Request: fold
Amino acid sequence: MSNEQTTTVKGGIGFSGLLTIAFIILKLCGVIDWSWLWVLSPLWIGAAAIIGLIVVIWFIALIINLFMMR
Reply:
């Protein structure tokens, strides 16, 4: 009998990362004339979504807490 364990780690760059790399390449090659804010937008759009989710959860918890105090 063998007591071997195998661990598989799956991951990758993801759609947002690929889109960011594509935008950076297009910007550096002169294909697009966007500001760097928009070139890097896939990165901050993901962060904004996470922050938005945290705010929504906090707001729901606040409302539930207000109703429990009655």
Summary: The chain has one domain: 15-68. The chain is about 65% helix and 0% strand. Residues 49 and 55 are 10 Å apart (CA to CA).
